[in-house]
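Hello again, I could really use a second opinion on something today. My current little project is about how a certain protein chain folds up. You're getting the sequence in one-letter code plus the fold written as tokens. Here's the protein in full, and shout if anything looks odd to you:
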Amino acid sequence: MAATNSRDFYEVLGVTREASAEQIKSAYRKAALQYHPDRNPEKKEEAEASFRAASEAYAVLSDSQKRSIYDRYGVAGLGNRGFDSGFNSSIFEEFQDILGDLFGFEDVLGGGRRRGGRARGQRGADLRYDMSLTFEEASTGVSTKIRISRHEYCEACKGTGAKPGTTMSTCTTCKGHGQLAYQQGFFSITRTCPACQGAGKVIRDTCVTCRGQGRIERERNLEVGIPAGVDSGTRLRMTGQGEPGTNGGPAGDLYIFLEVKDHAFFERRGADLYCTIPVSVTQAALGATIRVPTLQGEEDLEIPEGTQSGQVFRKRSKGMPNPNGGRGDLYISIPVVIPGKVSREQRRLLEQLGVLSKVENKPAERSSSFFEKVKDIFG
């Protein structure tokens, strides 16, 4: 990539003149990663020139006013409003995330330190708690208490780690800035001070309660509301109930992972429930009303005459509640149970039924009169 005074800025970044601001930004990032001198040690000078060319092009094309002037009058129209032979802070603010990835540092700014000269607050760690529920608890929802262990700010030193009554001293390594700056090629690189971890101050007399950590481990009881209809694998989040953050950062979250035990009678498939209730040959043939269990108590189920073994009936909205609203259905499979042993009278009646069943061979007539004959025998 040659210098920009001999090539078009759009050509330098490999975009068209109609490219959007996001496309220009993306092209610059790609070029910067490709031509960074540290990634091209064998061709450092050439890479440095290409990197500078991309940065110069981006400095103009990322500024809507400069881009408009450049589009109309070219480089000559910019005068001293172009790149100004240096790196301006806006470029680095746009691009500091990539440079941070390159160097492994938190910040890379062209003209100075990050605002306040301190490391940014870090969010606290998330915590996990595994909870087991019975099937009934999952179906109705439950409010319960859990006990967790987590780190909290030390009350004795207010989280500073310093002995109560004492003050923290300015870090002599970074002189209170929280960061160290040094030159990396033509970049000014800043990184968090290893002595004070970006705080800008160090502890001289440590707190005896937390031993200078600023945090101590405590056990806490938390009230947890479990909504009705949860299933195994459901994850609940309690915002801000994780570990505390550092440097003023927010606390992490507590995640509760649920496991719901199986039911002895119902099989669950999502919000729907399935069960099996056997009936006798007589009930299936003549029809009957049976009592079936549901989550809300027993209810009647009408078995029509001629029910076949394995037939499934549905009771709407008698399944598990859905956490998002509504309820599933209850599906009841009806197997017909053939008695293993029959009495002498039962055998006589079944034999009589067999004889009557053979009397009529026409399917249409048999289908219309069969159950009337069954009623006469068993009624």
Summary: The radius of gyration is 39 Å.
